[in-house]
Automatic annotation (TrEMBL):
Textual note on the cofactor: Binds 1 [2Fe-2S] cluster.
Source superkingdom: Bacteria
InterPro entries: NADP_DH_HndA-like, NuoE-like, NuoE_N, Thioredoxin-like_sf
The keyword Phosphoprotein is assigned to this record: no
The protein, known as: Formate dehydrogenase subunit gamma
Length: 158
């Protein structure tokens, strides 16, 4: 992931959108390209996408909100996804999630004030026998408790 620090220019956005316009169903590849480049889909890209694909802003919003991994604002340097599925809830996942949110002082999809960690819900990581589970960046971790979660958050800089 490239993740530009400065606000993208129209030319940069157009250069990422254009290569996908020949595809059947280009919206998802366009969104992925933008998110890979910037860590989110910049607001400035929205009118370019809707015009290029002849779709409404509502249609674009619908797709972005359906696929939870697309962001319209940058995430923190680390993303912690806490499993919210029933198997993890049954072994303390709800309490772990609530304690983590309270410890960091954020709501779901929130980012810590120092920009280090974004917390997101996820609905199954496939570790049902090892719950509660979470994913820190791309690493899945099972059998979490508050002590292990605190250590992970400290390591991530929260």
């Amino acid at each position: 992931m490239t993740r530009h620090a400065a606000a993208p220019t129209v030319a940069e956005l157009s250069d990422l959108i254009a290569p996908h316009l020949h595809l059947e169903g280009p919206l998802l590849p366009i969104l992925h390209a933008l998110q890979d480049a910037f860590g989110h889909v910049p607001e400035a890209a929205m009118p370019l996408i809707t015009e290029a694909l002849n779709i409404t802003r509502a249609e674009l919003h619908g797709v972005m909100s359906f696929y939870h991994d697309f962001r319209d604002v940058p995430a923190g340097r680390h993303v912690v996804k806490i499993c919210r599925a029933e198997a993890c809830q049954a072994v303390g996942g709800t309490e772990l999630a609530e304690a983590t949110l309270a410890r960091l002082g954020v709501a779901w999809h929130g980012t810590t004030a120092n920009g280090a960690v974004t917390i997101e819900p996820v609905y199954c990581l496939g570790l049902c026998a090892c719950g509660p589970a979470a994913m820190v960046d791309d690493k899945v971790i099972g059998r979490l408790d508050s002590v292990r979660m605190d250590a992970l958050l400290a390591e991530a800089g929260a």
